[in-house]
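Worked example

This section walks through a single chain of length 220. The input is the sequence exactly as stored; nothing has been trimmed or padded.
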Amino acid sequence: MSAPRFFCDIPLTSGARVALPDTLAHHALRVLRLRDGEAVALFNGHGGEYPAVLEVEGKAGFARLGEFSPREAELGGRITLVQGLPSGAKMDWVVEKAVELGAARVCPVAAQRSVLQLSGPRLEKRVAHWQRIAQSASEQCGRNRLMAVDAPCTLAEWLAQPDAGLRLMCHPEASDDLAARLRSAPGPQALTLLVGPEGGWSDKELALAREAGVEAVRFG
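Given that input, the structure is written out below as tokens.
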């Protein structure tokens, strides 16, 4: 069984003894009930990881770091998911699975047919919540770099950003097939997939995407 892995947003150095942040220590000692001397692994999102030994002093937790391991679990190409906000808590699941599938960034889009609409403090709390989900998913699936989760924007605002790589919009009535389009593209490269909310992209959003050079593809 592999050692529990934890994201630790502090500088890490081989041979150092680091104090675990309070939230991390609580999770390791009170939730997972890890004991003094158990093996763990720490990573700070900059690549690679450190095997470590847990040291417990009362309610405080420390980690004695071993030699740096450059192990990576990233894809050869960079994938960005532009996701039309779904209803309820479905975005939590989308973020988790995007991490597990190797996406580098998720850009939530407040689409015209999105039921979920966020603003102000509620938006800030939800983005922080999604970022914590991405962190936890990285700990579980073995990635040593954190997937970025952006604050929601409109599709027009996202399309106004600099173009990078191949951009494909998923649409059930598109004439081109996703698998065939990917086979014809040189790789690895930057790839962006645009996925609509439950009601799909509106005609206006489809037109905006086409004008910006985004290609429509179907999964089936």
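What to look for: Residues 1 and 39 are 11 Å apart (CA to CA).
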